[in-house]
From TrEMBL:
GO term, biological process aspect, one: carboxylic acid transport
Keyword Transmembrane helix: yes
Localization of this protein: Cell membrane
GO CC field: plasma membrane
Keyword terms of this UniProt record: Cell membrane, Membrane, Symport, Transmembrane, Transmembrane helix, Transport
Organism of derivation: Halococcus saccharolyticus DSM 5350
Name by which UniProt lists this protein: Sodium:dicarboxylate symporter
Pfam families: SDF
Membrane-related topology note: Multi-pass membrane protein
Transmembrane regions: 35-55, 67-89, 131-150, 186-204, 210-234, 300-320, 326-352
């Protein structure tokens, strides 16, 4: 689906050329976002039930442990890269502090968030789109199905009822992927509209004022993607072609860049993992919804970069101990950040307060956030997919002889990809 990438570039050019009238296209983009949001809850439920069919509690523990450890490790590396790059580039050193109204909304404490993973009412968790609570309930329900099925008599009504439920979930997931395909067809218009509206809104001036900040983030993200995901994870741990991986996840990347939401991109990431990367639903059905909520490498990295930016503006030099404390706070804050547009502006209060930096910085960068948010959301989504790929490999739950893996010119393959979105 190169059309969507072309739409992305053309939309950006039109936005810069036309200026603020391009913002009138926003509703066309909002429609794209709504369509994706519409299917987040059903797609998670169907694929997680399918995942539960393949996961014994022991397997779930093993895969879950690997996923969570890798999520934490990649996020810590991302923050270290962000701090390293921003210490080098020093964004903010030529900017003076302007006071503006600050969003002092406090981030909810992590303990409270952990507690809310267990829903008191699963239906209201679904209605509210509380992804962690939905994951928890669906997994418990799916595991319950597996256990009851194993205990039931072979020809009993209970066993056939559960088989029907599993088949229904499988059919439901297939239908959802078809709907994703349809939404991505409209996405060509949606992405064009979103990008035109963005650049129509922020214009070239804001870009100039915050060029170093944007450059630091873009540079750090390109290091994270090329070294951590492509070189270490794809080439090193999976032993597969990084280019094939990138081709396999491009729709998810462009969608994340366009809609600024990891959760909103989830249906597309799942479709890419299933159809292109050929990861088993037993892995991605669990790892991707979890990643969209807790694994935010781009966000964590950005929190670190903004801390250095704020220190430069305030003319404070950060000690090594302070940088470590930024790393720890940014790691926790990124886990607590919701996968929705500009969510990290709220979490930033925690990081800046931790090291006593001025919160006014948040007001200063809020104007450029619609642009920076896209970059970090794209990084967040690619991180989830890279970790899912290696966990798939470790658990024999990925088919590296099909999908996008055999369609890589640099690897000499010749079988065409079956990507439905191409
Ligand atoms: N928009 C980001 C996401 O959905 C979160 C953030 O960094 O604001 O992944």
């Amino acid at each position: 689906m190169y059309r969507i990438a072309v739409a992305f570039v053309l939309g950006s050019i039109v936005g810069l050329a036309v200026g603020s009238p391009a913002q009138r296209l926003q509703p066309l983009g909002d429609l794209f976002v709504r369509l994706l949001e519409m299917i987040i809850v059903p797609i998670i439920i169907f694929t997680l039930i399918m995942a539960a069919r393949e996961l014994s509690p022991a397997n779930l523990g093993k895969i879950g442990g690997q996923v969570v450890c890798l999520y934490l490790a990649t996020t810590a590396v991302a923050i270290a890269i962000g701090l390293g790059v921003s210490n080098l580039i020093e964004p903010g050193s030529s900017v003076t502090l302007t006071s503006g109204s600050v969003n002092t909304q406090q981030a909810p404490p992590l303990g409270e968030q952990l507690f809310s993973i267990v829903p008191t009412n699963p239906i209201s968790a679904m209605a509210e789109g509380n992804i962690l609570a939905i994951i928890f309930f669906t997994l418990v329900f799916g595991l319950g199905m597996t256990i009851v099925r194993a205990e039931a008599e072979p020809d009993s009504a209970v066993r056939s009822g559960i088989d029907t439920l599993f088949e229904t979930a499988e059919a439901g997931a297939e239908v959802m992927f078809k709907i994703v395909w349809g939404i991505m067809e409209y996405g060509v218009i949606g992405v064009f509209a979103l990008m035109a509206s963005l650049f129509g809104e922020i214009g070239i001036e804001a870009l100039r004022a915050y060029a170093l900040l944007a450059f630091s983030l873009a540079f750090a993200i390109s290091l994270q993607i090329s070294i951590v995901y492509l070189l270490v994870i794809l080439r090193g741990l999976v032993g597969a072609s990084p280019l094939a991986f990138l081709r396999g996840v491009k729709e998810a990347m462009v969608t994340a860049l366009s809609i600024r939401s990891s959760s909103g991109t989830l249906p597309v990431s799942m479709s890419n993992a299933d159809e292109n990367l050929r990861i088993d639903d037993g892995v991605y059905g669990f790892s991707l919804p979890l990643g969209a909520t807790i694994n935010m490498d781009g966000t964590a990295m950005y929190l670190g970069i903004v801390a250095v930016f704020a220190a430069n503006i305030a003319d404070v030099s950060l000690t090594l101990a302070q940088q470590f404390s930024i790393l720890a706070t940014a790691l926790l804050a990124s886990i607590g950040t919701a996968g929705v547009p500009s969510a990290s502006l709220v979490m930033m209060t925690a990081v800046l307060t931790q090291v006593g930096l001025p919160l006014e910085v948040i007001a200063m960068i809020a104007g450029i956030d619609p642009l920076l948010d896209r970059l970090r959301t794209m990084n967040n989504v690619v991180g989830d997919l890279a970790v899912s790929t290696v966990v798939g490999k470790w658990n024999d739950a990925i088919d590296l002889t099909a999908g996008v893996w055999v369609d890589d010119p640099s690897e000499g393959g010749s079988v065409p990809s079956e990507t439905p979105t191409d």
